[in-house]
Amino acid sequence: MHRIAAQNSINLPLYQIKQIGLEGRPRIDLKAFDTWPPSLTNGMPHYSQAIFSDAIRQLGQYIDKLKSRPPTGVLVQDHHPSLGEQLFDATAAAKIQTAQVAMYLEPKWRENLFRQLDLLHDPDGWEGGDLPIQQASFATFLRAICQIKPRRRPGLGLSSTGHLVAAWVSGDDDRLIIEFLPADSVRWVITRHIGSDEERFVGHTRAPRLLECLTPFAPDYWFSHEDEARVKPTRRTSRRKAHPLQKTST
Amino acid sequence: MRPTDGNALSVNWLEYFPGTPAHQLIESARAMGTIKNVGKNSAFAIGQVAIVKDACANAGFPVRVLYAPSNGNPSHSLIKNVIEDDLDLMATLASRACFPVIKLRNQIPH
What are the tens digits of pLDDT across the range A132-191? Predict the structure, then answer.
């Protein structure tokens, strides 16, 4: 196993590739993003850098291939499956999808994700007519999560049409809710409280652009833990640059 | 919500039942259990009609709350004009109109 440092046009190491000797499959170590010195990132939050990396684009292509691949290990039965079997098959397919990108997820993250999927598909209390988690929706979720790499795990829900919904709550009941649709489509809504006012922002974009769309709303406020530097986004989320002819005080 | 709900959110009118709030909750949960499969992870969100209507109207989604008893659930009511697919409206209801959330099955005596 050897390590290769790849460099971009301004001679900065973007990521390191570890080649697994036996399988020969390149393994991309995304931890290098966390070590970029602030002076080289122009003070931008490290999440923003993930948007532009070749590593993430390659990861996205890899996940695209998984979506078109039928799940393995699914038992074909010629009898009509019971509710329990349908739910089990759906969660098993989702776990197989997850396992194929497991190298990009923390083990604890993965364990909790599986536990949440099981809870969502508990036959006890399942509403007749609802659809279990749809593979296309889950693929969109995986793509978004592998790109964003949130440190905080979301609460998960399931729409009646089998679309996965993730929710982060922060501060005074501020919420980020994202619904993952097929074909890499995502809908999101932000609710935040500024004093006694409540503001809501709604968006609809594609998973690769989700982080960029959330950048004005300080994604660290949602995705980081409380003990990390989290700044509640204020009304004024963009810094106005001084006009070149404007005098500044010293 | 589901497409078959016809743009109406199904709710229970707590005050239909007499007694203390705890008793009202138990009876509502029991009534709900006669028409829906109440699992151990099911939960009640409690809201006030005036706050629900105000919150939705201020968000640009005026709704109507109607008493609509059904077989087995005499306290059944509907919040009409709730667009199923509207994330903004759903977020409004979740954030401003419905609290707290109480586990449902715990309210049904064994």
Answer: 999 999 999 999 999 999 999 999 999 989 999 999 998 878 999 999 999 999 999 999
Closest in A124, A160, A202 to B39, CB measured = A124
Higher pLDDT, A225 or A211: A211
| Pick from B39, B87, B92: CB nearest A125 | B39
Which of B25, B9, B6 minimizes the C-alpha distance to B17? Answer: B25
If one counts every other C-beta atom within 10 angstroms of the C-beta of residue B75, the result is 20
* CB-side neighbour CA atoms (13 Å) of B42: 19
- Is residue A213 predicted with pLDDT exceeding 60? yes
CB atoms within 10 A of CB A178: 26
Task: Note the pLDDT of residue A56.
Answer: 66
Are residues A119 and B2, on separate chains, in Cβ contact within 8 Å?
A: no
Tell me the C-alpha distance between B21 and B43, whole Å: 16
* pLDDT per position as a tens digit, B17-55: 999 988 888 888 888 877 777 777 777 788 888 888 888
Choose among A125, A130, A200: nearest Cβ to B42. A125
Q: What is the DSSP letter of B70?
A: B
Rg (CA), chain A: 21
Structure tokens belonging to residue B54: 């105000």
DSSP string, B91-108: HHIIIIIEEEEEESGGGS
Residues of A in contact with B39 (CB under 8 A): 122, 124-126
ipTM, interface predicted TM-score of the complex = 0.76
For A11, A36, A44, A52, A139, the CA distances from A8, given in Å and listed in that order, are: 5, 14, 18, 11, 29
Rounded CA separation A17/A26 (Å): 7
Record: contact A124-B40, CB cut-off 8 A: yes
d(CA A40, CA A42): 6
